[in-house]
Specification:
The protein has 9 helices and 9 strands. It has 250 residues and is an alpha/beta fold. The N terminus and C terminus are likely disordered.
C-alpha cells in the first residue's frame, strides 16, 4: 500500500493501492522492479553523458555501440507488460526476441510462456539472441534467479547465424535491437511467422526516419503485414502477419 497526500482542500495522507501488475509472481515482480530501477538509473546517466557532449561531434555508430555495450537499458515496464498480455492473448508458445541484452523483457516473455503452459498444457520456448557475451551471462543469471531458465533458449552471436533454425512457427516476435539490424531480423524471421503472429518493435515513432527500411518491408503487400504505431513513449510498432491470400484480396 502506498501513501499520498490528498488533493487540494484535503488534509493528511490517504492510502493508495499500488498499480496492479500483470505478473502475478511476487518473486519475479521483485526481481523485475530491481532491474527496472537499475535501467532507469543507467538511462539517466546516459542522458547526462549525452548532455555533456553538447556541441561536440556526434559519435559514429561504432562509438555509440561501444559506449552502450555494458549498459542495462531495458524495455519500458509498460511496454514489457503489454508484450506479456499479447503473448497470453494469443497463447504464444514459440517466441523470438531479437536483442535480449540483460534479459529483462525476456523475463516477461518467459513468464507468459510459463503461464500459458500452466493454463492449457503443452510446451513452449522463448528464443533469444544477444551478441555481447557479458550480457548473455548476466541474462542467464537473471533467468536462473527467476526460475525461468527452462523456458528460454538464449543464443549468443550474430542473429543472422543464431536464428537460422527456429524449429517451428513463431507466434510472437520482439524487436529491440540496433535499428540497422531490425529489417534483416524481420526478413530472416518472416517465413517462420504464422498467420496471426504479432511483431513488436520499439521506438518506431522517435526514430521514424531511421526505421525507413523496416517500414518499407512491413508496408510491401507481398510480405502480408498490417501495422500500426501505438502511443507508448517513443512509439511502439504492432504488426500482424496476415494470410498471404487474404492480404492480396484486399
Amino acid at each position: 500500500m502506498l501513501w499520498t497526500r490528498q488533493a487540494r482542500g484535503g488534509t493528511g495522507l490517504v492510502k493508495r493501492r499500488r498499480p496492479l501488475s500483470v505478473i502475478r509472481d511476487p518473486e519475479l515482480q521483485n526481481l523485475l522492479a530491481a532491474l527496472h530501477t537499475r535501467s532507469d538509473a543507467q538511462v539517466a546517466a546516459m542522458r547526462s553523458h549525452e548532455a555533456l557532449r553538447t556541441g561536440a561531434p556526434a559519435p559514429n555508430e561504432g562509438e555509440t555501440k561501444a559506449f552502450r555495450s555494458d549498459k542495462l537499458v531495458a524495455l519500458d515496464r509498460d511496454k514489457a507488460e503489454f508484450c506479456y498480455q499479447l503473448c497470453r492473448a494469443n497463447n504464444a508458445r514459440r517466441i523470438v526476441e531479437v536483442g535480449t541484452s540483460y534479459g529483462v523483457s525476456t523475463l516477461y516473455l518467459a513468464a507468459a510462456v510459463r503461464d500459458n503452459i500452466l493454463a492449457t498444457g503443452g510446451d513452449g520456448v522463448v528464443i533469444g539472441t544477444e551478441y555481447e557475451p557479458e550480457k548473455v551471462r548476466a541474462a542467464r543469471a537473471h533467468f536462473a534467479q527467476a526460475g525461468l531458465s527452462r523456458f528460454v533458449d538464449l543464443r549468443e552471436g550474430d542473429l543472422r547465424e543464431t536464428l537460422r533454425e527456429i524449429g517451428g512457427p513463431v507466434d510472437f516476435m520482439l524487436v529491440d535491437i540496433w535499428i540497422a539490424m531490425a529489417r534483416p531480423a524481420l526478413e530472416l524471421m518472416a517465413r517462420h511467422l504464422r498467420p496471426g503472429a504479432i511483431v513488436i518493435c520499439d521506438n518506431t515513432e522517435q526514430y521514424r526516419t531511421e526505421y525507413a527500411d523496416y517500414f518499407a518491408f512491413l508496408e510491401s503487400p507481398a510480405n502480408g503485414f498490417r501495422t500500426m504505431t501505438l502511443p507508448f513513449a517513443g512509439g511502439l510498432e504492432l504488426s500482424v502477419r496476415c494470410e498471404a491470400s487474404a492480404a492480396r484480396m484486399i
